[in-house]
Amino acid sequence: MSKLIVEEAPLTEELLHRKVAVATVRGRPYYNITNALKLMELQFDSLSPEEAAASKAKVIITTQDEAGIVKSKGTVMLDTELEKYPAISKAKILRSIVGDSADDQLTIGIDPGSRIGISAIYLQEELASAVESSPQDAIDQLSAMLGGIESHKKVVKIGDGNISMTRQIARMLKMKFRDSVCIEIVDEHGTSKNADTNKRGARDISSARTIAFRTGKKFVLK
Questions:
Q1: pLDDT band at residue 172 using 50, 70 and 90 as cut-offs
Q2: Contact 128, 87 (CB under 8 A)
Q3: Domains along the sequence of the chain with CATH
Q4: How far apart are CA 19 and CA 56, in angstroms?
């Protein structure tokens, strides 16, 4: 996943450093947690549950059995949370680190077509990028993020390159989320010109990222 440069500065490594603690002495959970955090491109400290309880970490990730040892004013997450929806977990971690004062708008860009590119942006970070093969698969992933991520405003921007699919996705999302999600139809002309065409799906994801930062026309359910 890419670190994005937008109008507001992205979260710095200094801000993230020493804010997340992996607190388990168990080998398999430790491997699973740290592997998930590396895929999320998040820094972390490895501590015992006792050390984590005394630390200033804002997010502590541990196991169900060891959670009782951790006494923290920060957010305590279980290893099982990271397995289900990594994007939702990353959003929760970032939100816990930066607090309530930051702009927490969730913006999702979608490039519709035979391969549907998706890019989700939250707190100036790309939470997730994916390529789905069908509108229903895309809706399932989008619904999980829109329903599971805490945000004061949620915006879905869909490119107009395949207008029938664009309207299908927009309608399905609007019927599900109504006024809690703003949907825009975006002119996607030129969105794929800088994509790496040699990597499968890269063009679709790159286009979705570009679409996420364009202003579109509000979709109204009729």
A1: very high
A2: yes
A3: 13-98 (3.40.50), 106-218 (3.30.420.140)
A4: 7
